[in-house]
Amino acid sequence: MKGRTLLDGDALARLAEFRRVGATPTRGTLSLDPAQITREQNLARMGANSSDTGLHGLAKIQNENNRALIDGLNRLGADAPDDAHTTGERMMAALQRGLDVEKANVDTLYSQARDSAGRSMPMDGHAFTTQASRLLDDALLGGALPPSVEQHLNRIAKGEVPFTVDYAEQLKTAMGKLQRASNDGQTRMALGVVRQALDDTPLVGSIGPEAGKQAVSAFNRARLANRSMMKRIERVPGLSAVYEGKATPDDFVQKYVINRGAKAADTQRLADELRRIDPDALETVRGSIAQHLKTAAIGAAADETGRFSASGYNRALMALGPRKLAQFFDAEEIAQLKAVGKVAQYTTAQPAGSAVNNSNSGNVLMGRGLDLLDRLSARVPLLGLGPTVSGAARGVQQRQAQQIGQALVRQPVPLPRQLPGMTFGALMTTSTADGH
Fold it and tell me: Comparing C-alpha atoms, which of 95, 143, 46, 102 is closest to residue 364?
């Protein structure tokens, strides 16, 4: 419809990101028009190089926006007092407490099984060794059985050891450790078939057979609890490092959360462990992630002097990825992190076609020129040059910084310019007259 004003959806989306971060937009940062950005950036530099405080408006907006980006990260924990070492210590301590509770439960179950009346019930050693040998031969695994287990089988077959429920459970535990420690598929399979034969071995005698079965059941419960604990430990690299005593607090967060090598699935399970054991420890991890992003943006500089790097920040944010961020931040906080990166881009963008004087040499001369005109105007009031030039520049700066309405309106696409028809007619007339 004629006369209808259409809003620019992209510019409105950029305005929303500025509002989310608490930064001040300008016409150029909303439209991303290269010519407008060129004018604003050069005017900001020119004004900053002038002693006229009335020309410092755009430079101040840039400085305030830089601080708004840093403050946005601080609100998410980037200014927390805990450093990487302290956070690592807290995470490791929380994980260790969880392990201690589980290990105590497993130890209790094993203690109850060993104290059961049926643990001394004899088992059929002949049936066990015969079945184990047959399974190994059928699968061609006889040579893959570890020597220590083979020695146990020989001693049981010869009756050199009291083959009781208790002895069988100790043998199962030993084989389980060997199986987990081995990377050889044949060895793991050989241990598996011996374990199968052991599980199928009957009790001997008729005195208290039920007690023997109860003892086996008690050991099975203890073993199941231990297996469940070990399986979860193996699935969480950070937890496994704590369990094995290989974790160090200085690089724990970096290695098991932030690093690209820390898979999102692994960090999810680590976050779940912390959430279950110590939610407050999870909060310190959030702070460490925010600190990591802040360091990527301003390095080791103080908040008051740091210059926010959009490229450094966004690289670090992208490396973390949405899945990993979602494990430690809620949807609103992730939107805040993304908005910081977008606004950092908008406020420093120099798209193709812009001509920002990044060397600052021309802006220094212009700023000093304005000062000179002001001084001349003061000495020769009739010239009126200084106030005229300074007033115009100041007015441009204010409009650029505050009048953003035009940037929110979709600009019509200009029609391609064509040469007037008479030009072609004249050319044709000339060509005909010349006989060409």
Answer: 46
